[in-house]
């Protein structure tokens, strides 16, 4: 065998090896891609299930508060505390309903809040049991309490049905969506700052996602900034817009022209008040629909 023939055979072997290696790598890449998509789908389904379970638990707790409030409690302070906790459960439930399933951090926080409220309720239940231990009228009122429980369960079921319908409306293909949200605190020179006392302005960067099925034209983007105490930040009491047949407050608005393609923008809040420390929430609305909800934090 000549040297030329040997080199030719060696080249063929190397080429065959490279082709086989490339085929193996291609198969591995396709398999890894399919595996990743499967895992992502399973993760989203799990998060949706956990959110639904958490909503059920909140509704169950709201029903329990309703039941205890119907009892003949001879303690005005305890009645007032029960009313406050019941409202707190309702507020958290409403927030959970508008929280996106992918907002795992906020859902985890709401889960912790649920555990806290349950502990408070256990304390109240013990007080109620102690107060009612000598109240013989509980036997006669038992049937009435059961009926009220059934009515509360019916209302909870109706609320769940309305929540499902709302979710279907929100998921319509033509609805816009806010992506890539970020809040940046600025100082008086419009430079980013992490020093609480130097914050003069809040910059909110966002992107309205691409959606060719949405009707193009001029639109108005409304943003509601909710403080840690639950109040909406406003510059004027006249800053309201129509949402679900009601006029609700907004913090900042901006007109923009939408043509179906992704568009980025920024909103600014001039700080003229003492900013509360803690978690805020920014809700975005366009065309009478909630299109994004994002938490952000102000630190001391």
Order of helical and strand elements: HHHHEEEEEEEEE
Distance between the termini: 82 Å
Question: What's the mean pLDDT score?
Answer: 81
User: Low-confidence segments, ≥5 residues, pLDDT <50?
Assistant: none
User: DSSP strand (E) fraction?
Assistant: 15-25%
Question: Would you count the extended β strands for me?
Answer: 9
Could you characterize what this model shows?
The chain is α+β, with helices and mostly antiparallel strands and 300 residues long. The chain is 51% helix and 23% strand. The chain has helices spanning 3-69, 76-98, 104-132, 138-170; strands at residues 178-186, 201-208, 217-226, 240-243, 246-249, 252-258, 263-270, 278-286, 289-298. The chain has a four-stranded antiparallel beta sheet with strand order 6-3-8-9, with no helix packed on it. The protein has a three-stranded antiparallel beta sheet with strand order 1-2-7, with no helix packed on it. A hairpin with a 2-residue loop joins strand 4 (240-243) and strand 5. Helix 1 (3-69) packs parallel to helix 3 (104-132). The protein starts with a helix and ends with a strand. The model has no long low-confidence stretch (mean pLDDT 81).
List keywords for this structure.
300 residues, alpha+beta, 4-stranded antiparallel sheet, 3-stranded antiparallel sheet, 9 strands, extended
Topology:
Blueprint: H1 3-69, H2 76-98, H3 104-132, H4 138-170, E1 178-186, E2 201-208, E3 217-226, E4 240-243, E5 246-249, E6 252-258, E7 263-270, E8 278-286, E9 289-298
Antiparallel strand pairs: 1-2, 2-7, 3-6, 3-8, 4-5, 8-9
């Amino acid at each position: 065998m000549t040297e030329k023939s040997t080199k030719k055979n060696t080249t063929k072997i190397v080429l065959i090896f490279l082709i086989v290696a490339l085929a193996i790598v291609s198969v591995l890449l396709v398999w890894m891609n399919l595996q990743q998509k499967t895992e992502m789908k399973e993760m989203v389904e799990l998060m949706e299930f956990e959110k639904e379970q958490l909503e059920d638990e909140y509704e169950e707790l709201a029903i329990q508060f309703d039941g205890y409030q119907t009892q003949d409690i001879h303690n005005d302070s305890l009645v007032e505390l029960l009313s406050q906790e019941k409202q707190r459960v309702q507020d958290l439930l409403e927030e959970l309903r508008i929280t996106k399933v992918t907002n795992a951090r906020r859902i985890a926080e709401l889960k912790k809040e649920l555990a806290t409220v349950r502990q408070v309720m256990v304390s109240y239940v013990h007080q109620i049991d102690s107060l009612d231990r000598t109240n013989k009228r509980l036997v006669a009122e038992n049937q009435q309490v059961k009926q009220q429980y059934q009515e509360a369960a019916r209302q909870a079921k109706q609320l769940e049905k309305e929540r499902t319908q709302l979710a279907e409306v929100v998921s319509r293909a033509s609805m816009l969506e806010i992506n890539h949200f970020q809040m940046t605190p600025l100082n008086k020179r419009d430079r980013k700052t992490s020093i609480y006392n130097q914050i003069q302005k809040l910059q909110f960067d966002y992107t309205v996602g691409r959606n060719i099925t949405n009707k193009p034209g001029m639109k108005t983007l409304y943003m509601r900034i909710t403080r840690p105490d639950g109040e909406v930040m406003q510059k004027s009491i006249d800053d309201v817009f129509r949402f679900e047949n009601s006029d609700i407050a907004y913090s900042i608005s901006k007109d923009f022209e939408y043509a179906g393609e992704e568009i980025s923008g920024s909103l600014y809040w001039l700080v003229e008040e003492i900013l509360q420390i803690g978690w805020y929430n920014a809700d975005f609305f366009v065309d009478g629909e909630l299109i994004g909800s994002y938490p952000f934090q102000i630190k001391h």
